[in-house]
Structures are given as structure tokens and as C-alpha cells.
Design brief:
This protein is an alpha+beta fold. It is 50% helix and 13% strand. The protein has an 8-stranded mixed β-sheet, sandwiched between helices.
């Protein structure tokens, strides 16, 4: 049994712990957001065919300053004019520019830099930073444990998932999410320099009927069609293969082009893990976390097999 004084001390301790946890989570999210915005800018520069030296000269900035921006250095103060100048130099489209400016603004807000995107917080769909990160990647590796990865979903399959359970999302929210997904998929299929995509889908996800039988059939046909496109690999993980580390959750691994570094400096990390849940999305970019998912992916890739065609043959 504890006395009244013990209760007060415990309450004070718990309060400090909660505040510390919140501060650490916010700081971690801000650091992640800084790094990812920097990586996006580095990817745009790389796609524009500019070295750091040339870009820094055209922007009238020092090479080390540009390196710090791309590395997400916390000493850098985000400046809308500089961000806009970089986007113009790298020929980023208007949507990408607006998203990057919005993400940069989040970094300096008291509650910004979220490492957790809350899907039920009433935020607009475009508040999620993921589309910008995805479009800046050079390689996307996605594993679907219970469902087909969203980037490979048909509209019918995606809508059936979004409407489970009934009433969780409004019709407007569902429509907005479907529109955003369609835009991401168009970028993958029509962009001049799309990222390579490697997908592995658990066999159980392929066997589950999502929507009606026609929707499920269309989704399988879509996966087979994607699997023969250049730059896209779609395979399945057989149920007979036994236990594996991917059984805990679906995930996506993004890889980014390595930015040129200033002599004597180490490059920033070049990976991001995305973990989706019913109510939000978590992002991880610490090297130890990325390495753990890289290891899981390697294990899954070694077990995966081509998706059978309609006659049961491997495709």
C-alpha cells in the first residue's frame, strides 16, 4: 500500500514521463521529416542531372549548405524562397512543389514533424507526406501480408477495403483516398523516370475474396498484367513455406538515390519504412529499423515465387 505522498510522487513522475515521451516523439518526427524532405530534394536534383556543385552554384549557395539541406541537418532553417528556387531549378511540378513546401512548414510548427500520420484526425488527405516520399524513391519494395499492397490495387479492390467496416469513413473521405491512390498509381505507370517496384503478396491475401468474386478476379488479373511490365516485379509467398518474419505486418521499403556528399562528410541514410494501420501510418528511417526490414525483405524474397496464371502455371 502506498501513502498519499507516494501517490503524489508517482503522479508527478508519470506526468514528467508523458511530457518527455511526447517531446521525444515530436523531436524524432521532426528529424525524420527533415531528412525525408532533404532526400526528396536530393532525388529531384539527381533526376534533373545536376551535381551538388552545379546546383549550389546556380542557387548561389555554398556546397556545404546544400549538403546540410539534403542531409536534413537541424541547423538549417527552411526558407520558402530557397525551397521554391530549388524546385524551379530541378523542374519539379507544381503539386510536388506545394507538397514539399507544406512539409517544410510542418517542421517548424510546435506540433509538426509527425512520425505518425493520424488518418482519423480530420486532416486533409494531402497532409500525409507519403506520396512525396514515394515519388522521390528509386526503388519501392512492398510486402502484403493480409491484403494486396495499395500501389497494386484495382479501384474496386481498394474501395472494398476502405469500406470495411461500414461507416468508419465517410463517402467523401473514401473518394478522396481513392483519388490519391489513383494519382500515385498514375505516377508509377506514366512518369518518365518511375521508381522500380518489387512486390511480394502473401498467398493468403490472394486467396481471400475482397468485394465480390468479380472484384477478386479483376485484382488477380491486374497483378498478372503488372508482373510483365518493365521495372515491376510481383511475386507471391506460398503458405506452404512455413513461418516467416513478415507474418507480423505488411510494410513498404523506400530506397532513395544516394546524394553526392561533401568531402569528409558521410551521406545521410537512404531508406524509409512505411507501416500502415487502420487508423494511421508510421514512418521509420533510423538505420537500425531500416536494416531490420531489409533483412526481413531478403528472407521473403528468397522464398517468393511467381504468381500462377489462370491455368495454375507460374508467370
Amino acid at each position: 500500500m502506498t501513502g498519499r505522498g507516494d501517490g503524489r510522487r508517482a503522479g508527478a513522475y508519470n506526468g514528467r514521463a508523458a511530457r518527455t515521451a511526447g517531446t521525444n516523439a515530436q523531436a524524432g518526427g521532426t528529424a525524420l521529416l527533415r531528412r525525408q524532405v532533404g532526400r526528396c530534394l536530393a532525388a529531384l536534383r539527381y533526376e534533373a542531372g545536376l551535381s551538388q556543385d552545379v546546383a549550389a552554384d546556380k542557387l548561389r549557395r555554398g556546397n556545404s549548405t546544400l549538403w546540410r539541406i539534403e542531409a536534413g541537418d537541424p541547423r538549417v532553417r527552411w526558407n520558402e524562397a530557397d525551397m521554391s528556387a530549388m524546385c524551379r531549378l530541378y523542374q519539379a511540378d507544381d503539386e510536388t512543389r506545394e507538397r514539399l513546401l507544406a512539409l517544410a512548414a510542418e517542421i517548424d510548427r510546435p506540433n509538426g514533424g509527425r512520425w505518425w500520420h493520424d488518418a482519423l484526425a480530420g486532416l486533409p488527405i494531402d497532409a500525409d507526406p507519403y506520396p512525396v516520399f514515394e515519388q522521390s524513391a528509386t526503388l519501392i519494395r512492398c510486402y502484403g501480408q493480409a491484403t494486396v499492397p495499395d500501389l497494386l490495387q484495382t479501384p474496386g479492390y481498394a474501395e472494398a477495403l476502405l469500406r470495411c467496416p461500414a461507416g468508419l469513413r465517410s463517402d467523401d473521405d473514401t473518394a478522396a483516398r481513392l483519388d490519391q491512390l489513383a494519382a500515385r498509381q498514375r505516377h508509377l505507370l506514366t512518369h518518365q523516370h518511375p521508381p522500380a517496384v518489387q512486390a511480394i503478396v502473401n498467398e493468403g491475401a490472394l486467396r481471400r475474396t475482397v468485394g465480390d468474386a468479380e472484384t477478386a478476379r479483376a485484382q488477380l488479373d491486374h497483378l498478372r498484367a503488372l508482373a510483365i511490365r518493365p521495372g515491376i516485379s510481383v511475386r507471391t509467398l506460398p503458405l506452404a513455406g512455413g513461418a516467416h518474419a513478415g507474418m507480423t505486418n505488411s510494410f513498404t521499403l523506400l530506397c532513395f538515390a544516394a546524394a553526392t556528399t561533401v568531402p569528409g562528410r558521410q551521406p545521410a541514410g537512404s531508406g524509409l519504412v512505411r507501416l500502415g494501420t487502420l487508423t494511421g501510418t508510421m514512418y521509420l528511417d533510423q538505420p537500425a529499423h531500416v536494416a531490420a526490414y531489409e533483412r526481413v525483405w531478403s528472407d521473403l524474397a528468397a522464398r517468393a515465387q511467381p504468381i500462377p496464371d489462370g491455368n495454375g502455371s507460374a508467370k
